[in-house]
Amino acid sequence: MRWIPVLALAAASAAAPAAADDPPRVRVVTLDGRVLPGDSIVPLGDRIEVRSATGSTPLALADVLEATLEVGSVPAARGGAGNPAVEVETVQGDRILGTLQRGAGEAGFVVRHPALGEIEVPLDLVATLRFPAAWSKAVDPPPLRSAEREDRFLFLSGDRLDGTLRSVSPTEVRVRTAKGEDRSLSADSLLGFALVPLPRKPEAGLRVQAVLADGTRLTGASISGEGKTWLLGRGFDGKDRPFPSGTLAGIAVRGGAGTVLSDLERPRVEVRAYWGDDPPVLPLRPVFDRAFTLDPGSPPPLRLGGGTWLRGVSMFSGTTATWEIGGRGFRTFSAAVGVDDAGPRGRVEFEVLLDGKSAWRSGAVGTVAAGGVPTPVPALDVSAAKTLSLVVHAGPGEDVQDFADWVRPVLR
Description:
Elements (H helix, E strand, L loop, with lengths): L25 E5 L4 E4 L1 E5 L2 E6 L2 E6 L3 E6 L15 E6 L4 E9 L4 E6 L3 E6 L3 E5 L1 H4 L15 E5 L4 E9 L3 E6 L4 E5 L3 E5 L12 E6 L4 E4 L1 E5 L2 E5 L7 E4 L3 E7 L4 E2 L7 E4 L15 E2 L13 E3 L2 E3 L2 E5 L2 E6 L7 E8 L8 E7 L2 E9 L9 E7 L5 E8 L8 E9 L1
Antiparallel strand pairs: 1-2, 1-6, 3-4, 4-5, 6-22, 7-8, 7-11, 8-9, 9-10, 11-16, 12-13, 12-16, 13-14, 14-15, 17-18, 17-22, 19-20, 20-21, 23-35, 24-29, 25-28, 26-27, 28-35, 29-34, 30-33, 30-35, 31-32, 31-34
């Protein structure tokens, strides 16, 4: 079965209705937890309509969390001589898969995506850059994270270097070491690098993130389209970016009537592994808007009951993540939980703490049945809370495949 994205303007909505037993082509999740299936989505300025054979449902875009669509594919980014394939993640949650075309000195670099074309990436927005070809050759590579105060560069040889990134090009990465020495690192010797985040202004206003079939995510001020071509308006480079509609896997709305935990500052994390400290605890850090995995490389999408979710927090059992939420005007927190489809043997218990005290506990939870819905976390009153903690405890199956997903974790 192949689902096709049918986001179209009203003039393009005259497609024949789906048969009653056909699965929905679109699934829209609202900030208050409603899940609306449909055949198409029609964007109407600050609203969208979810349309099906039985009618349409209008929604304010500010009340929408995400919409997912099953799609065909995006051509793979094929690195060649002098233009390696890269995976870039930004501090604002965008992710770009493509080939590194050229450097722009200390301003940044240019990546070419098979569907989006050339994207100018400023260095001050880069969180990590990974070279997938080198990563696939690495034996037990370490996590791609910066040092506390310096950028970190990982080598295919297993070595690492801490310093400050100066520039990136297809053939070399220039670094200033902590001793003030300038070094040129061959790009083909590197696994990748992670940068210390720079202070930046909070994002403001409603934003729409286009999620493509290859996992690329790019945020803009709007999304629109008709027929075979869609347009992401005013991305981080200020440009409108057309792309083929058949490559779209979904949209995620940010800055609306609620705040997803993955859009807040990163939480404090405590890990108490099931087996204790012997062997040493691995860096079992939560993953945001994708699924936790013990495999090296890029995390996969969040999958529960066969369905893909775009917004969430995923973690391994024994993990506690704590956010400071006091003084922000939040009234309620809600979510839904389950063990990711990648962990069919996993059994965990989810818990929410407010100011360190238990506010909700799930009991033992496993994977979601195919076509089923994850276990809801009821709307919890957080108006008086200073901290919100998400906790995952190992269940009756010890800690085997305990890949625990919190989807649609929203503060309102």
